[in-house]
């Protein structure tokens, strides 16, 4: 069936047919029923794309005179024209049974890259277990790595600035969960950024830094966390961070600068040296654009400030560890601000004690931290259920299992002893990932940090921080 378009397969067949010798004399002239006799060509050992293309165009010119008459003369084949032709709606082109290179190329691009319209129309991220693909990986500092992720299908990542997601990883044949704050902002919703600081001996941080690469896929759950700008209202912000605790502050700052350009932000970050400052360029850029963004650094090695001040000449510096005198110098009105703190536990303990001693209104104090934790091996009682109860112990009923718990054991230890799936990222009552619901019985909890008043009223507890004081029924 004749077609009006260029067919690569037809051209290839035509060229191969014209190249077959009529005899052992490879320089003999070639004759085709539809072509004039052509002079002998120099011998060629391979297929000539130019020759095939010329032959195909000659075929088109002689076999479709009506079509040729309809269009202006063309001096040669145009790849861009063929591509444009292939991309026209199918209804405007005759059907063809041959392979179209341009069509195949356009088809592949459509399959691998979503259109801008598809991206714009993407559904919002819903809290559930999802698979993401790593699309970028880079070093922030000598021991900090950032990753950028997208959904396997276009998705808008809607979350509260400051929230975290939890990675579900398989390391050495074991399933491991670990939570990391989302470093990007929902004001830029088409990708997620997570920043990981390598910790000596850290199981997950080193695994991610060494083994998670561009195009790899990873399973995550989220978003979660009450440490965020939406659930904690404020008029004036004081962000205090150390080390990788800067990640939620980066997300919050970006959100405020993108959505509320007049936000009053004071940011004080503590680091070992200028070479250990994460997001230095991004923070300087935000501070430079916003007259109400005060950017300050506390450096243990205070002599190396040139690289930071060169980014933004309004940067303030102090040397050593944080104390109330240095804070008052950098942020004179700190008492009137809502404080968000994130960093190593020792840093947050010091900040909390400092503010309490300064008579700060601790209702305006908020903190969160994530770090590497060792795997916990549960030593659940070996007694039978009847022996355990006879000895005055209590039973935990969850997922049709009855688990004997000692008085010093948490719900999390009992759940893990039975091999039941539960996300336990921080194991210290700050991340909220192990939230579950007590439907019957009594418990005592050492932390309710991430639970709302409504959740507590409904019976929710944090498994890592809760022990039972009676027989308990639990929903996960």
UniProtKB/TrEMBL annotation:
Tell me the InterPro entries matching this sequence. 2Fe-2S_ferredoxin-like_sf (IPR036010), 2Fe-2S_ferredoxin-type (IPR001041), 2Fe2S_fd_BS (IPR006058), Beta-grasp_dom_sf (IPR012675), Cbr1-like_FAD-bd_dom (IPR008333), FAD-bd_FR_type (IPR017927), FNR_nucleotide-bd (IPR039261), MRET (IPR050415)
Q: Does the keyword Oxidoreductase apply?
A: yes
The protein's UniProt keywords, in alphabetical order, are: 2Fe-2S, FAD, Flavoprotein, Iron, Iron-sulfur, Metal-binding, Oxidoreductase, Ubiquinone
Spell out the residue ranges making up region: Disordered: 1-49
Q: Where is the composition biased (Polar residues)?
A: 1-37
From start to end residue, where is composition biased (Low complexity)?
A: 39-49
Name the needed cofactors.
[2Fe-2S] cluster; FAD
Q: Does the keyword Metal-binding apply?
A: yes
SUPFAM superfamilies, per database record: 2Fe-2S ferredoxin-like, Ferredoxin reductase-like, C-terminal NADP-linked domain, Riboflavin synthase domain-like
Domain (2Fe-2S ferredoxin-type) spans 394-476
Q: Which domain of life is it from?
A: Bacteria
Ranges where the FAD-binding FR-type domain occurs? 127-230
The UniProt entry's sequence similarity note says: In the N-terminal section; belongs to the FAD-binding oxidoreductase type 6 family.
Its name, as the record gives it, is: 2Fe-2S iron-sulfur cluster binding domain-containing protein
């Amino acid at each position: 069936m004749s077609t009006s378009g260029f067919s690569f397969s037809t051209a290839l067949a035509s060229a191969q047919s014209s190249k077959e010798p009529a005899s052992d004399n490879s320089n003999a002239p070639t004759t085709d029923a539809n072509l004039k006799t052509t002079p002998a060509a120099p011998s060629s050992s391979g297929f000539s794309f130019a020759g095939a293309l010329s032959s195909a165009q000659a075929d088109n010119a002689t076999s479709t005179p009506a079509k040729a008459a309809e269009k202006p003369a063309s001096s040669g084949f145009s790849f861009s024209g063929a591509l444009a032709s292939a991309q026209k709606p199918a209804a405007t082109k005759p059907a063809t049974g041959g392979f179209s290179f341009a069509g195949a190329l356009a088809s592949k691009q459509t399959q691998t890259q979503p259109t801008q319209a598809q991206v714009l129309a993407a559904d919002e991220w819903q809290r559930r277990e999802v698979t993401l693909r790593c699309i970028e990986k880079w070093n922030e500092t000598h021991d900090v790595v950032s990753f950028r992720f997208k959904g396997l299908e276009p998705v808008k990542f809607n979350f509260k600035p400051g929230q975290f997601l939890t990675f579900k990883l398989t390391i050495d044949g074991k399933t491991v969960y670990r939570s990391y704050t989302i470093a990007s902002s929902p004001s830029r919703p088409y990708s997620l950024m997570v920043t990981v600081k390598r910790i000596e001996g850290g199981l997950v941080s080193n695994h991610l830094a060494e083994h998670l690469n561009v195009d790899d896929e990873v399973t995550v759950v989220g978003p979660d966390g009450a440490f965020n700008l939406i659930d904690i209202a404020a008029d004036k912000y004081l962000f205090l961070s150390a080390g990788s605790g800067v990640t939620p502050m980066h997300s919050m700052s970006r959100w405020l600068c993108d959505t509320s350009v007049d936000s009053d932000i004071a940011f004080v970050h503590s680091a070992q040296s200028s070479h250990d400052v994460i997001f230095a360029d991004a923070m300087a850029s935000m501070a430079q654009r916003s007259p109400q963004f005060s950017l300050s650094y506390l450096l243990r090695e205070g002599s190396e400030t040139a690289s930071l001040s060169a980014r933004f000449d309004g940067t303030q510096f102090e040397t050593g560890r944080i104390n109330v005198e240095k804070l008052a110098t950098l942020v004179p009105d700190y008492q009137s601000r809502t404080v968000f703190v994130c960093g190593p536990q020792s840093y947050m303990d010091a900040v909390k004690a400092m503010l309490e001693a300064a008579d700060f209104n601790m209702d305006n104090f908020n903190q969160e931290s994530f770090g590497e934790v060792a795997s916990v091996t549960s030593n659940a009682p070996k007694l039978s259920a009847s022996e355990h109860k006879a000895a005055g112990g209590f039973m935990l009923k969850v997922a049709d299992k009855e688990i004997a718990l000692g008085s010093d054991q948490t719900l999390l230890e009992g759940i893990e002893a039975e091999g039941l799936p539960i996300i336990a990222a921080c194991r210290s009552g700050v991340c909220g990932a192990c939230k579950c619901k007590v439907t019957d019985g009594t418990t005592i909890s050492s932390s309710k940090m991430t639970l709302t008043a409504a959740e507590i009223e409904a019976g929710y507890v944090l498994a890592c921080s809760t022990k039972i004081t009676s027989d308990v029924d639990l929903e996960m």
